[in-house]
Amino acid sequence: MTIRKPRRKSNRQLWIMLALIVVVIAIIALLPSGGETAEPGPKPENEIEASTLVKAGDPAPDFTVGMFDGSQVSLADLRGKVVLLNFWATWCPPCREELTHVQTQIIDRFAGRPFVFLPVSRGESRADVAAFREKTGYAFPMGLDSTRTVYDRYASNYIPRNFLIDADGRIVTATTGFEQAEFEELIRTIEATLAKTE
To answer: Residue 185 maps to which CATH number?
Structure first.
Protein backbone atom coordinates (compact mmCIF):
# COMPACT_ATOMS: atom_id res chain seq x y z
CA MET A 1 0.00 0.00 0.00
CA THR A 2 1.37 3.37 -0.97
CA ILE A 3 0.65 6.52 0.97
CA ARG A 4 0.01 9.48 -1.25
CA LYS A 5 1.33 12.81 -0.12
CA PRO A 6 -1.13 15.65 -0.47
CA ARG A 7 -0.37 17.68 -3.58
CA ARG A 8 1.06 21.09 -2.88
CA LYS A 9 -1.16 23.86 -4.07
CA SER A 10 0.28 25.77 -6.90
CA ASN A 11 1.94 29.08 -6.11
CA ARG A 12 0.08 30.48 -9.06
CA GLN A 13 -2.75 31.91 -6.92
CA LEU A 14 -0.24 33.59 -4.64
CA TRP A 15 1.54 35.23 -7.58
CA ILE A 16 -1.76 36.46 -9.04
CA MET A 17 -2.72 37.97 -5.69
CA LEU A 18 0.64 39.73 -5.35
CA ALA A 19 0.37 41.09 -8.89
CA LEU A 20 -3.10 42.50 -8.13
CA ILE A 21 -1.81 44.20 -4.98
CA VAL A 22 1.03 45.81 -6.93
CA VAL A 23 -1.41 47.08 -9.58
CA VAL A 24 -3.73 48.59 -6.94
CA ILE A 25 -0.82 50.34 -5.20
CA ALA A 26 0.38 51.72 -8.54
CA ILE A 27 -3.11 53.07 -9.36
CA ILE A 28 -3.39 54.75 -5.93
CA ALA A 29 0.05 56.33 -6.35
CA LEU A 30 -0.94 57.79 -9.73
CA LEU A 31 -4.20 59.36 -8.53
CA PRO A 32 -4.09 63.18 -8.28
CA SER A 33 -3.40 64.40 -4.76
CA GLY A 34 -5.43 67.62 -4.98
CA GLY A 35 -2.38 69.90 -5.25
CA GLU A 36 -2.97 71.87 -2.07
CA THR A 37 -0.56 74.58 -1.03
CA ALA A 38 0.45 72.53 2.00
CA GLU A 39 2.80 70.75 -0.42
CA PRO A 40 6.22 72.43 -0.32
CA GLY A 41 7.50 74.53 -3.17
CA PRO A 42 6.04 77.19 -5.42
CA LYS A 43 3.20 76.37 -7.78
CA PRO A 44 3.54 77.09 -11.49
CA GLU A 45 1.85 80.38 -12.31
CA ASN A 46 -0.23 78.82 -15.10
CA GLU A 47 -1.69 76.23 -12.66
CA ILE A 48 -2.68 78.96 -10.23
CA GLU A 49 -4.17 81.09 -12.99
CA ALA A 50 -6.13 78.16 -14.41
CA SER A 51 -7.56 77.39 -10.96
CA THR A 52 -8.62 81.01 -10.33
CA LEU A 53 -12.22 81.36 -11.50
CA VAL A 54 -12.58 85.14 -11.07
CA LYS A 55 -10.02 87.76 -12.08
CA ALA A 56 -9.43 91.46 -11.48
CA GLY A 57 -12.31 93.47 -12.93
CA ASP A 58 -14.83 90.61 -12.69
CA PRO A 59 -17.95 90.96 -10.53
CA ALA A 60 -17.39 89.03 -7.30
CA PRO A 61 -19.79 86.06 -7.15
CA ASP A 62 -22.38 86.63 -4.44
CA PHE A 63 -22.63 84.19 -1.53
CA THR A 64 -23.98 83.78 1.96
CA VAL A 65 -21.70 82.15 4.49
CA GLY A 66 -22.45 80.89 7.98
CA MET A 67 -20.16 82.44 10.55
CA PHE A 68 -18.48 80.79 13.52
CA ASP A 69 -20.73 82.72 15.92
CA GLY A 70 -23.90 81.38 14.22
CA SER A 71 -24.72 84.52 12.23
CA GLN A 72 -24.73 84.75 8.43
CA VAL A 73 -22.96 87.18 6.13
CA SER A 74 -23.88 87.85 2.50
CA LEU A 75 -21.49 89.58 0.15
CA ALA A 76 -24.41 91.61 -1.22
CA ASP A 77 -24.99 93.03 2.28
CA LEU A 78 -21.40 94.32 2.32
CA ARG A 79 -21.83 96.43 -0.83
CA GLY A 80 -20.36 99.89 -0.22
CA LYS A 81 -17.47 98.40 1.76
CA VAL A 82 -14.10 97.08 0.64
CA VAL A 83 -13.94 93.35 1.44
CA LEU A 84 -10.89 91.14 1.75
CA LEU A 85 -12.20 87.60 1.24
CA ASN A 86 -9.64 85.12 2.57
CA PHE A 87 -9.87 81.34 2.07
CA TRP A 88 -7.80 79.25 4.47
CA ALA A 89 -7.70 75.94 6.39
CA THR A 90 -6.33 74.93 9.79
CA TRP A 91 -4.02 72.26 8.31
CA CYS A 92 -2.39 74.64 5.80
CA PRO A 93 1.00 76.07 6.99
CA PRO A 94 1.00 79.17 4.74
CA CYS A 95 -2.60 79.89 5.81
CA ARG A 96 -1.59 79.74 9.46
CA GLU A 97 1.40 82.00 8.76
CA GLU A 98 -0.78 84.55 6.98
CA LEU A 99 -3.36 84.59 9.80
CA THR A 100 -0.66 85.55 12.32
CA HIS A 101 -0.35 88.90 10.52
CA VAL A 102 -3.98 89.86 9.93
CA GLN A 103 -4.97 91.17 13.38
CA THR A 104 -2.38 93.96 13.54
CA GLN A 105 -1.60 94.52 9.87
CA ILE A 106 -5.13 94.36 8.47
CA ILE A 107 -7.94 94.28 11.06
CA ASP A 108 -6.47 96.88 13.45
CA ARG A 109 -4.97 98.98 10.66
CA PHE A 110 -8.28 99.43 8.81
CA ALA A 111 -10.59 99.54 11.86
CA GLY A 112 -13.25 102.25 11.69
CA ARG A 113 -13.09 102.44 7.89
CA PRO A 114 -15.51 100.93 5.33
CA PHE A 115 -13.55 97.67 5.26
CA VAL A 116 -14.32 94.04 6.17
CA PHE A 117 -11.82 91.22 6.58
CA LEU A 118 -13.76 88.01 5.88
CA PRO A 119 -11.74 84.82 6.43
CA VAL A 120 -13.59 81.69 5.31
CA SER A 121 -12.44 78.24 6.39
CA ARG A 122 -12.54 75.96 3.37
CA GLY A 123 -13.77 72.38 3.68
CA GLU A 124 -13.54 72.04 7.46
CA SER A 125 -16.00 71.39 10.25
CA ARG A 126 -16.98 73.89 12.92
CA ALA A 127 -15.24 71.62 15.47
CA ASP A 128 -11.92 71.88 13.58
CA VAL A 129 -12.18 75.67 13.46
CA ALA A 130 -13.22 75.82 17.14
CA ALA A 131 -10.15 73.82 18.19
CA PHE A 132 -7.93 76.04 16.05
CA ARG A 133 -9.42 79.24 17.52
CA GLU A 134 -8.95 77.92 21.05
CA LYS A 135 -5.34 76.99 20.35
CA THR A 136 -4.43 80.29 18.65
CA GLY A 137 -6.62 82.67 20.64
CA TYR A 138 -8.07 84.22 17.47
CA ALA A 139 -11.32 86.03 18.22
CA PHE A 140 -12.02 87.75 14.89
CA PRO A 141 -15.06 86.59 12.90
CA MET A 142 -14.60 83.55 10.64
CA GLY A 143 -16.86 82.02 8.03
CA LEU A 144 -17.38 78.26 7.72
CA ASP A 145 -17.48 76.73 4.25
CA SER A 146 -17.39 73.01 5.06
CA THR A 147 -18.92 72.03 1.70
CA ARG A 148 -16.72 74.44 -0.33
CA THR A 149 -19.83 76.11 -1.73
CA VAL A 150 -18.33 79.60 -1.46
CA TYR A 151 -14.77 78.61 -2.37
CA ASP A 152 -15.87 76.80 -5.53
CA ARG A 153 -17.32 80.05 -6.91
CA TYR A 154 -13.90 81.68 -6.73
CA ALA A 155 -11.32 78.94 -7.30
CA SER A 156 -10.87 75.24 -7.93
CA ASN A 157 -7.61 74.70 -6.03
CA TYR A 158 -4.94 76.16 -3.74
CA ILE A 159 -5.08 78.05 -0.46
CA PRO A 160 -4.54 80.51 1.10
CA ARG A 161 -6.29 82.77 -1.36
CA ASN A 162 -7.24 86.41 -1.04
CA PHE A 163 -9.77 88.22 -3.20
CA LEU A 164 -9.94 91.98 -2.66
CA ILE A 165 -13.42 93.23 -3.58
CA ASP A 166 -14.17 96.92 -4.02
CA ALA A 167 -17.23 98.83 -2.79
CA ASP A 168 -19.00 98.18 -6.11
CA GLY A 169 -18.58 94.42 -5.75
CA ARG A 170 -15.78 93.93 -8.29
CA ILE A 171 -12.55 91.98 -7.86
CA VAL A 172 -9.60 94.36 -7.48
CA THR A 173 -6.88 91.74 -7.09
CA ALA A 174 -6.45 88.07 -6.25
CA THR A 175 -3.45 86.47 -4.51
CA THR A 176 -2.49 82.88 -3.77
CA GLY A 177 -0.13 81.57 -1.11
CA PHE A 178 1.69 83.68 1.44
CA GLU A 179 4.82 85.74 0.89
CA GLN A 180 5.60 88.77 3.04
CA ALA A 181 6.30 91.06 0.06
CA GLU A 182 3.04 90.10 -1.64
CA PHE A 183 1.15 90.54 1.63
CA GLU A 184 2.57 94.06 2.02
CA GLU A 185 1.55 94.84 -1.58
CA LEU A 186 -1.96 93.59 -0.77
CA ILE A 187 -2.13 96.00 2.19
CA ARG A 188 -1.12 98.89 -0.10
CA THR A 189 -3.82 97.84 -2.57
CA ILE A 190 -6.42 97.79 0.23
CA GLU A 191 -5.33 101.32 1.19
CA ALA A 192 -5.59 102.55 -2.40
CA THR A 193 -9.00 100.91 -2.88
CA LEU A 194 -10.30 102.48 0.34
CA ALA A 195 -9.02 105.88 -0.77
CA LYS A 196 -11.32 105.65 -3.83
CA THR A 197 -14.27 104.71 -1.59
CA GLU A 198 -13.99 107.28 1.20
So the answer is: 3.40.30.10
